[in-house]
Amino acid sequence: MSERPTKAILRVLDGEPVWPLPIWIMRQAGRYLPEYRATRTQAGSFLDLCYTPRLAEEVTLQPIRRFGFDAAIMFSDILVIPHALGQEVRFVENEGPKLDPITSSADLKRLADELPLDRLDPVFETLDCLSASLPRETTLLGFCGAPWTVASYMIAGKGTPDQAPARLTAYRDPAFMQVLIDKLVAASTAYLIRQIDAGAEAVQLFESFGAALPPALFDKLSLDPIRRIVEGLKQARPQAKVIVFVRGGGSHLHRFASAGVGDALALDWTLDPAQILPDLPGRVATQGNLDPLALIAGGEAMEKGVDHILSAVRGRPHIFNLGHGILPETPTEHVAQLIARVRGTRA
Question: Is 217 in a helix, a strand, or coil?
């Protein structure tokens, strides 16, 4: 019989209610931290920061040093997979990622047949370093983007408000879209397996664009690819724990739970845990889901939001987090107040 985990987040992912709730926040290594901005300038380009293990380790550790979060999520980006496959990816200051669009079967031929894992060696080196440098009580998280979200960037060549280019492609050329999704399922599974081998104790799949998919496309482009990745990862590495975050996927939450997709389901800020959780199986761990704008506002608005979540999840396996990534304009003192509220201590 395997030993029970001792780290708070791993205990939750094992189905155990833990109190006070363990806490980390999405994008916790980011622009709201002055020390991150200094390291980002030192690195030069964003991709250089992702691919320089010494610097990626440093920015991953910064929020742990400052706030003592219960988990550290390795610093990287979901677009390293298309970059490793051979798609041109660059990050433009104040504009975001730019890619050479992949829109046809001919374009797909420019990509590698399988993910060249050696191109991602810097990511794995970062994880290896973090395994040694993190506090013993801190869980190390890896991650990747879900296939639909990554495909949306690959097809449009940039982020778009409603993922219209990718949705239109799915309608016009479903065979092309399926080949691309299948390629990303295989690449993501291999990438996550290697992350676990490099020291990640759990991973999160980010389906940031789940809200864009209509019901007719959701299963084929989101639910099924995510299920295949989770099953492939757990078949290869049974000890791996998986958090699934589908932003805007609230209407599908029960279907993810009933299908056993992931060890925890992350809730975006549009969902009320007091209404959602009573209908979920008690064994299903959850994560979330304070509105990132409530954290910016701070004060009473933030405290009420925190207290509502704490009340709703008491007695269930739950990880406190935001309902999406922390925003750059978030005051650091509000983050400290958030952690104090969750842990029941004064900031």
Answer: helix
Please state, in angstroms and as integers, the Cα–Cα distance from residue 123 to each residue in 88, 113, 327, following that order. 18, 21, 24
Domain edges within the chain: 8-343
Helix (H, G, I), strand (E, B) or coil at 282: coil
C-alpha 70/C-alpha 66 separation (Å) is: 12
Q: Mention every residue, 6+ apart, whose C-beta is less than 8 A from residue 241.
A: 10, 13, 14, 201, 202, 203, 263, 264
Say whether 27 is catalytic: yes
> 8-343 has which fold?
TIM Barrel (3.20.20)
Catalytic residue among 153, 227, 247, 263: 153
Beta bridge partners of 71: 139
The question of whether 31 is a catalytic residue gets the answer yes
Catalytic residue among 32, 36, 40, 247: 40
Dihedral sign for Cα atoms in the order 97, 103, 109, 113: positive
Reported as a pLDDT band with limits 50, 70 and 90, residue 261 is confident
pLDDT in tens, 154-188: 999 999 989 999 999 999 999 999 999 999 999 99
Set 31, 37, 66, 119: catalytic member: 31
DSSP classification of residue 320 = E
Q: Decide: 221 and 147 in contact? Cβ < 8 Å.
A: yes
Residue 280 confidence (pLDDT) above 90: no
Question: Could you read off the pLDDT of 48-97 as tens digits, one per residue?
Answer: 999 999 999 999 999 999 999 999 999 999 999 999 999 999 998 878 89
Q: Judge whether 167 counts as a catalytic residue.
A: no
